[in-house]
Design goal:
The chain has helices at residues 3-7, 20-31, 66-79, 128-132, 142-145, 161-170, 190-197, 295-316, and strands spanning 10-16, 37-39, 53-54, 64-65, 83-85, 89-93, 99-103, 107-116, 120-122, 138-139, 153-157, 176-180, 202-205, 208-215, 221-228, 234-235, 241-244, 248-250, 281-283. With 318 residues, it is α/β, with parallel strands linked by helices. The strands form 5 sheets. Strands 1, 2, 5, 6, 7, 8 and 19 form a 7-stranded mixed beta sheet that branches. It has a 5-stranded parallel beta sheet with strand order 10-17-11-12-13, with helices on one face. α2 runs parallel beside α3, α2 packs parallel to α8 and α6 runs parallel beside α7. Mean pLDDT is 92; it is low at 1-7.
């Protein structure tokens, strides 16, 4: 905890989350002399901390490692005197202003405005090898990593719109794409099913579950261990990559009952802004974006949230 964070319990702006959205919001809020406090979570940095090569973030001609990108963003926010606090928000009260935020069940802070940037996490299969090989052939984002699988043989797990979209996207790069689904039919919308069924580069493995992932000596995905759910038969196809596309979960458990969330748990914002249904509370990044989920879009909404927060404070005379 920084000295500034420790000595000042009421803030103009408290930012919850330390991915691209939160760090960008911090840069803009700090440059507006709002002295923001950023609560970065016990596991700081968001999804980019488990991402290796980031080649689609503007300004890095040769690409950048995910953790390095987060580090540079954090250093930039620090340069403008953003106060950082490592810890998890365990309680929040948005029923009255100033808003109350409790960190690690221990310390209470108050905020005139709050910017929610707590992000979302990809749902994973729960295999030990999955996290170990993340960024080394295992991915949860085809848009981010598809380029690295040019001419490769890849598999996609899932049966909904996300899985179908990822598989179709990967056919731009991979020689062969195989969609693995636990059922005997897709859950995706009819139009998406029609598209993937008509794509000659996509094969299907129905009634199949991924039981394990085997790595090469170099530590990259080499083959999959698959089980036919109906027969119990095990197969071990060679694979260059495995994309997990079984959905995302927004990190909003601490917000339930506090403000409007959609059916999937994402924070609902008003069109054309980052405003929530509670005046003075804003949301940016993947916590309110179930569609794009990119570092650059998260950063953009982080900028928007800081500007919305600044304007709110001015209009309220705070």
């Amino acid at each position: 905890m920084s000295e500034a964070a420790a000595n000042q319990t009421e803030r103009n702006v408290i930012i919850i989350g330390s991915g691209p959205a939160g760090l960008t919001a911090a840069v803009y809020a700090a440059r507006a002399n709002l002295s923001p406090l950023l609560i970065e979570g016990a596991t700081a940095g968001g999804q980019l901390m488990i991402t290796t090569d980031v080649d689609n973030y503007p300004g890095f001609a040769q690409g950048v490692q995910g953790p390095d990108l987060i580090l540079q963003m954090r250093q930039q926010a620090e340069r403008f005197d953003t106060a950082f606090l490592t810890g998890d928000v365990t309680e929040i009260d948005l029923s009255k202003r100033p808003f109350r935020v409790v960190v690690d069940d221990d310390t209470t802070y108050y905020a005139k405005t709050i910017i929610l940037c707590s992000g979302a996490r990809a749902k994973l299969l729960g295999l030990p090898a999955e996290s170990r090989l993340m960024g080394n052939g295992v991915s949860a984002c085809a848009t981010c990593d598809g380029f690295f699988f040019r001419g490769k043989n890849v598999f996609v797990v899932g049966g909904g719109d996300t899985a179908v979209e990822e598989a179709i996207f990967l056919t731009r790069f991979a020689t062969k794409v195989t969609l693995i689904h636990r059922r005997d039919s897709l859950r995706a919308s009819k139009i998406m099913q029609d598209k993937i069924m008509a794509n000659p580069k996509v094969d299907f493995l129905w009634n199949t579950a991924v039981k394990d992932i085997t790595a090469s000596k170099e530590g990259r995905v080499e083959e999959l261990v698959l089980e036919d759910i109906k027969t119990g038969k095990i197969s071990k196809p060679k694979a260059d990559g495995l994309f997990i596309a079984i959905g995302h979960s927004p990190n909003t458990a601490f917000l339930k009952g506090q403000l409007d969330l959609d059916a999937a748990g994402y924070v609902m914002t008003k069109p054309g802004s980052t405003k929530t249904n509670i005046p003075g509370v804003f949301a940016a990044g993947d916590v309110q974006d179930a569609i794009y989920r990119q570092a650059i879009t998260a950063a953009g909404t982080g900028c928007m949230a800081a500007i919305d927060s600044e304007r709110f404070l001015e209009e309220e005379g705070l």
